[in-house]
């Protein structure tokens, strides 16, 4: 009787598995299921909103038929997986220790931390390349600091990192393994070979009929799609005639290219990058994990006197626009009592009334991704909470812009526009897709114009050559603007750290993008607001949209360059 029951149970289990894998196979061959976005309506418009005309790329489309080889045929070396049979670095077996540890240090002392990377069998790695974050914290003082410089990789499984002790109190060292070296190698391979990761959908509408198709920055996209269709595919080429920025959609049968109306990222955006990886590679990716310390990682720091609470190397100058744009990324500061203290210049922290005075009689443009839209929203909503009763006006498609906030009291106008493709937002109108370089060319170069730019977060799904080319178009547009008026202040914000829900959103990608951004903008008449350290060392580091505490410090840093004279309270209070 028991044998019969066992056989019946086994047959039932096999039947369930067959149904499951059949369903998975069918689902893989479908177009991605799409969810229509419920637009945030916001308050009703109370002022007239000026919209940019239809973008140039939407007027100059062409249709092209191409023979598409499979990605394995086009890039055979990209599928030569490396390091997948080696034992990867594991956070739970790796460790760190303070090599010059003692229970008490003095303010401005330096500690040295050694990281030892071990694999899953607890063996010390013989190579380097692991990607770590290391910081020191004091929750009592709401203080934190990144390392003094980059983590030194000795290429033998050991790493060294140094910290200067910037405040008095109880300090704790933490080290995160963000990616093992094997995962970094996989990220580098897919980034360099495949500029069309993530899934983008275009919606076409003609004669009361709608359909959806795939779109991206290149015609070599979606390995699953092309392996299940004929090799000849017709494309709509929406490459922008002014900037040369490419954008293609597979032309749907029976629909003209001119019927392209909406754009979206799908909820299955991570599928392409996973299919470009070996199964063993996919298992390398997990959320960052803290390493355990070998010996104590907590100690006391004492000050030399009651008036000396923090350690600043020298008396800092006032912040001068463009003075921090050197192309490199030295450690830029640390937090103390939740305020960011810079090593570059004397920062101030601004009350709302002081921000209004700083921006008085100005027209401020926020251009780029949602992390710069955060600045716009933070300021608009902060101003609205004052007694002046100003109104924040949302465009119906507020994630793209034009969003407008106006204050009659201080004669301030603020605009927000998103950049063009690639754009990882769900269901936006193509008429709202404007490339940043083209927008800058149309901005007034009047005295009182201010521009804040962020262009990084949506480019992790392409390669660095593509990002550099897009950045060069923005760089040239800034030069043209400053030819019209050299005194227009331009601020460029770097990428911040983000959460790790999708592999294509890796902080390693963003770190590399920041390197290109700093390199290309070095020597330009722009002010770089480098927020990487401000987010890597904060205890809320892994969020694509930083916390309000970080956000205020980012804005205060920018305003310290814009209005350095008498506004705001000094952050570096020891001087």
Give me some keywords for this one.
575 residues; alpha+beta; Rossmann fold; 7-stranded mixed sheet; 29 strands
Describe it for me?
The chain has 575 residues and is α+β, with helices and mostly antiparallel strands. Among the domains are: 95-178 and 287-302, Sandwich (Immunoglobulin-like); 361-532, Rossmann fold (3-Layer(aba) Sandwich). The strands form six sheets. Strands 1-12-13-11-10-14-25 form a seven-stranded antiparallel β-sheet, with no helix packed on it. It has a seven-stranded mixed β-sheet with strand order 22-23-24-21-26-27-28, with helices on one face. Helix 9 packs parallel to helix 10 and helix 10 (464-484) packs parallel to helix 11. The longest helix is centred in the N-terminal third of the chain and has 27 residues, at 2-28. The chain is flat. The termini are far apart.
Strand order of the largest sheet: 1-12-13-11-10-14-25
Q: What distance lies between the first and last C-alpha atoms, to the nearest angstrom?
A: 87 Å
- As a percent range, the share of strand residues is 15-25%
CATH architecture of the domain at 361-532: 3-Layer(aba) Sandwich
Q: Calculate Rg over CA atoms.
A: 26 Å
CATH fold name of the domain at 361-532: Rossmann fold
CATH class of the domain at 361-532, please? Alpha Beta
Sum up the overall morphology in one term. Answer: flat
Give the proportion of residues in helices.
Answer: 25-40%
Major sheet details: 7 strands, antiparallel
Strands, count: 29
Average of the residue pLDDT scores: 81
State the low-pLDDT regions, or none: 16-51, 385-391, 571-575
């Amino acid at each position: 009787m028991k044998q019969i029951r066992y056989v019946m149970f086994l047959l039932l289990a096999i039947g369930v598995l067959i149904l499951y894998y059949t369903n998975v196979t069918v689902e893989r061959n479908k177009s991605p299921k799409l969810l229509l976005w419920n637009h945030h309506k916001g308050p009703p418009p109370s002022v007239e909103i000026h919209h940019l005309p239809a973008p140039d790329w939407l007027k100059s489309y062409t249709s092209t038929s191409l023979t598409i080889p499979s990605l394995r045929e086009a890039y055979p070396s990209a599928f030569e997986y490396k390091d997948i049979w080696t034992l990867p670095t594991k956070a739970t077996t790796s460790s760190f220790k303070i090599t010059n540890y003692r229970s008490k240090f003095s303010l401005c002392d330096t500690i040295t931390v050694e990281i030892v990377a071990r694999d899953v069998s607890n063996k010390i790695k013989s190579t380097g390349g692991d990607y770590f974050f290391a910081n020191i914290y004091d929750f009592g003082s709401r203080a934190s600091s990144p390392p003094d410089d980059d983590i030194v990789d000795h290429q033998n499984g050991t790493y060294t990192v140094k910290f200067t002790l910037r405040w008095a109190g109880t300090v704790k060292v933490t080290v995160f393994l963000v990616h093992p070296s094997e995962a970094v190698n996989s990220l580098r391979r897919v980034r360099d070979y495949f500029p069309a990761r993530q899934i983008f959908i275009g919606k076409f509408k003609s004669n009361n009929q709608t359909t959806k198709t795939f779109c991206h920055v290149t015609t070599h996209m979606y390995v699953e799609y092309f392996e299940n269709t004929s090799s000849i595919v017709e494309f709509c080429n929406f490459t922008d005639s002014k900037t040369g920025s490419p954008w293609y959609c597979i032309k749907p049968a029976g629909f003209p290219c001119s019927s392209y109306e909406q754009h979206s990222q799908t909820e299955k955006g991570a599928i392409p990058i996973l299919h470009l990886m070996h199964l063993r590679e996919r298992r390398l990716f997990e959320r960052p994990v803290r390493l355990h310390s070998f010996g104590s990682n907590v100690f006391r720091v004492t000050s030399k006197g009651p008036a000396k609470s923090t350690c600043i190397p020298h008396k800092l100058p006032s912040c001068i626009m463009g003075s921090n744009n050197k192309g490199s990324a030295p450690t830029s500061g640390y937090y103390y009592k939740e305020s960011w203290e810079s090593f570059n210049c004397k920062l101030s922290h601004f009350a709302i009334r002081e921000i209004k005075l700083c921006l008085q009689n100005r027209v401020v443009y926020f251009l780029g991704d949602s992390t710069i839209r955060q600045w716009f929203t933070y300021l608009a909503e902060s101003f609205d909470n004052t007694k002046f009763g100003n109104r924040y006006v949302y465009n119906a498609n507020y994630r793209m812009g034009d969003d407008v906030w106006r204050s009659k009291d201080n004669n301030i106008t603020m605009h927000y526009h998103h950049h063009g493709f690639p754009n990882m937002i769900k269901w936006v109108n193509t008429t709202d897709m404007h490339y940043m370089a083209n927008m800058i060319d149309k901005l007034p170069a009047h005295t009182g114009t201010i521009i804040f730019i962020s262009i990084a977060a949506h480019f992790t799904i392409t390669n660095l050559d593509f990002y550099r080319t897009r950045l060069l178009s923005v760089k040239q547009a800034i030069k043209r603007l400053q030819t019209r008026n050299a005194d227009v202040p331009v601020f460029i914000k770097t990428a911040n750290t983000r959460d790790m829900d999708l592999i294509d959103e890796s902080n390693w990608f963003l770190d590399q993008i920041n390197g290109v951004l700093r390199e290309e903008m070095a020597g330009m008449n722009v002010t770089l607001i480098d927020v990487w350290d401000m987010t890597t060392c904060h205890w809320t580091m892994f969020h694509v949209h930083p916390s309000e505490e970080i956000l205020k410090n980012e804005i205060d840093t920018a305003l310290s360059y814009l209005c350095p004279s008498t506004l705001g309270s000094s952050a570096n209070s020891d001087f």
